[in-house]
Amino acid sequence: MRDRARKRAGTIAVRALVVLGALFGPGVAGAEPALKEVVFAPHRAVYDLSLDSAQSGSGVAGVNGRIVYELSGNACEGYAQSMRFVSQTLNQEGDVQTTDLRTSSWEEVPSRRLRFSTSTFQNEIAAEQTQGVAKRTQGSGPATVALVKPEKREAKLAGDIYFPIQHSMAIIQAARAGRTILAADLFDGSETGDKIYSTSTAIGRQLKPGTGPVVSLAKGTADLDRVPSWPISVSYFPATQGPGDTVPLYEMSYRFHDNGVTSSLRINHGDFAIKGELKELTYFEPSPCKNPTP
Questions:
Q1: To 10 degrees, the CA torsion angle through 39, 250, 70, 37?
Q2: How far apart are CA 294 and CA 290, in angstroms?
Q3: What is the pLDDT of residue 246?
Q4: In angstroms, rounded to a whole number, what is the distance separating the alpha carbons of residues 214 and 192?
Q5: CA–CA separation, 230 vs 276, rounded Å?
Q6: Tens digits of per-residue pLDDT, 10-56?
Q7: How many other CB atoms sit within 10 Å of the CB of residue 11?
Q8: Is the peptide bond before 213 cis (omega within 30 degrees of 0)?
Q9: What are the φ/ψ torsions at residue 175 (nearest 5 degrees)?
Q10: pTM of the prediction?
Q11: I want to staple 136 with a disulfide (CB 3.0 to 4.6 A). Which of 11, 123, 126, 143 is the partner?
Q12: Can you tell me whether residue 106 is helix, strand or coil?
């Protein structure tokens, strides 16, 4: 169970680092015009991982690793993202397990299509692989998933589903509007490729430019403290057990900057928690908008 939890930590990190945007996202009542003004900066971010806390019965004695995340594209056609999440976990018997999660995706704007691919390696041995495309006729509502891996099949996603870009955009828009809670059903193609998570996002008070804690002295982050940001905490539940019915599977907290950069990352599994410190940030020039879809 702990091995599976550590693997899922990488999957959850993807959700926190999906700092992308779409033109429309369901569940942000009365805010549709302002959604078009939310723009995220293409960038590359590097995070160093370490163990933040562990209960005596967790079996986890230490964690170290690194996340490398890249975002490219534009708000006209869509955004591409890639991430590699490598962690080494030391148990109380002195054994070390290396987990290597590699993900890539592209989401159309406005979120009618999501291409996704995820590969997980445990101690350099392939453990899981998921690949497919989720489609729908509009930028919100239910979707159909055509899976290629782990097996070729079709899955139906019912309800008002958020794709990852939509979810990140909705969080920023809700934060700008002064909302403190955002509930959403999220699909990102992780695990079996057809799983939906119920999420509850708590949004803290905005940190005005220059008033929040310094992000870090890492390379490329000097200007980040001048960008408005919010403390965010996202709880993930099985779709069949929404908020209020049970304790969350995971909790993700981070500082979400208005330009789409994530800092002060923390992944809480209940009996242990991992923190990610932003060590390097590089901005890219946005790709030009073109009529053809990538």
A1: 0
A2: 9
A3: 78
A4: 39
A5: 17
A6: 444 343 333 322 222 333 333 333 444 677 889 999 999 999 999 98
A7: 23
A8: no
A9: -65, -45
A10: 0.83
A11: 143
A12: strand
Q: Which two tokens stand for residue 173?
A: 């828009």
Residue 216 is predicted with a pLDDT of 67
- Spatial contact of 165 and 208, defined as CB atoms under 8 Å apart: no
Residue 2 contacts by C-beta under 8 Å, 6 or more apart in sequence?
58, 59, 60, 91
First to last CA, the chain: 39
Low-confidence winner among 49-63, 170-184, 202-216 (lowest mean pLDDT) = 202-216
Question: Pairing mode, if any, of strands 78-91 and 143-149?
Answer: unpaired
Closest Cα to residue 278, out of 230, 221, 206, 212?
221
Write out the DSSP string of 6-56. Answer: HHHHHHHHHHHH-----S--TT-TT-HHHHTT-----EEEEEEEEEEEE-T
In order of 146, 252, 265, the CA distances from 116 in angstroms are 11, 21, 23
- Cβ contacts of 222 within 8 Å, gap of 6 or more: none
Residue 221's pLDDT band (boundaries 50, 70, 90)? Answer: confident
From 4-8, 85-89, 207-211, the region with the lowest mean pLDDT: 4-8
What are the tokens at 31?
């805010």
Q: Report the run of H or E that residue 6 belongs to, with start and end.
A: helix 2-17
Question: Which tokens is 136 given?
Answer: 């729908």
Q: How far apart are CA 73 and CA 79, in angstroms?
A: 4
Structure confidence at residue 74 as a pLDDT band (50, 70, 90): confident
Task: Report phi then psi at 171, rounded to 5.
Answer: -65, -45
Instruction: Identify whether the C-beta of residue 199 lies closer than 8 Å to the C-beta of residue 234.
Output: yes
CA dist 238 and 263 (Å) reads 26
